[in-house]
Amino acid sequence: MKYYGGCDSGSTYTKCVIIDENGKMVSDVTLRSRINAVLSCEDALNQAVEKVPDLHSPQELTYLVGTGYGRNKVPFADENISEISCHAMGVHVADPKVKAIIDIGGQDVKGIAVDTDGTVLNFAMNDKCAAGTGRFFEAMARAFEMELSEFSNLSLQAKNVIPITAQCTVFAESEVISLVGEGKPMDEIAAGIELSVAKRCFVMSKKAGAVDHITLTGGCAKNAGLKAAIEQVLNLKVIDLPIDPQLMGALGAAEFARQKAER
Question: Which stretch of DSSP H or E encloses residue 251?
Fold first, then answer.
């Protein structure tokens, strides 16, 4: 049996996926990224390989593709491919019916339109500001003195929304801290945060060509409050993927590895 790997070296998390020659996912790992991207990738690859009895080291992979923020740092990679292409291919593998993606990563937001073969039709990216990214949500959770998972569900309880006017992560964090200090309902503040990010996704959804549905990828796709806010603002159904949405970049990279090795 031949095995193919994809390693997504992200700014916040490093993900690795291994698939077999039939395209079946046989191993996956998600680790918090260290300062040294090479060490992060080595950790993820080694842990992923340990889950496959037939493999003993990453060098035994038939083909390995690196992607993500640190894609040039992936050891043993045969080549690297942009995370935009890999997220499109990953979603195509997970659910071929989905043709529009909003990818919310650690430091940027992307809208991606997917063609029938999993390649990219069009995309737009907001990488000028961290507002609305994974790091933004981590900052908001800190302001609430909550775990990120707890914060992600908080807005679902809100009956009203307290708007967040600041467009910058630093200013938004200060605004949130002030509102919390004033004793405003925390669920309503959280609802305002989720709504502000959802509005930022509007242009991305248009660039992705979304008509009636869209899917979310990246770690922020697990944010239930954000999903609900996006459905409200965009008036679109957010499709849940059958595979962890945080793994889409690594899965797409692994599928590219399989395709390229077979040529």
Answer: helix 248-262
Measured CA to CA, the distance from residue 186 to residue 192 in angstroms comes to 10
Q: What is the pLDDT of residues 32-90, one digit of tens each?
A: 999 999 999 999 999 999 999 999 999 999 999 999 999 999 999 999 999 999 999 99
- List strands edge to edge, sheet with 237-239: 120-126, 109-114, 100-104, 213-217, 237-239
In the chain, pLDDT over 90 holds for what percent of residues? 72
Q: To which residue do tokens 């990010």 refer?
A: 197
Written out in words, the top-level CATH class of the domain with range 98-240 is alpha beta
Into which CATH architecture does domain 3-89+245-262 fall?
A: 2-Layer Sandwich (3.30)
Distance (Å, whole) CA 26 – CA 232 = 36
pLDDT at 127: 56
Helix, strand or coil, per DSSP, at residue 230? helix
CATH 3.30.420.40 spans which residues of the chain? 3-89+245-262, 98-240
Q: What mean pLDDT is predicted for residues 243-249?
A: 97
Question: What is the pTM for the complete model shown?
Answer: 0.92
The pLDDT tens digits of the residues spanning 133-170 come to 778 888 888 888 889 889 999 999 999 999 888 767 67
Residue 7 tokens, joined: 């390693």
Neighbours of 21 (CB within 10 A): 13
Which of 105, 258, 229, 56 has its CA nearest to residue 156? 229
Sheet of 25-32, strand order:
25-32, 13-20, 3-9, 63-67, 79-80
Nearest-angstrom CA–CA distance, 99 and 211: 10
What dihedral do alpha carbons 9, 200, 124, 148 form, nearest 10°? 10
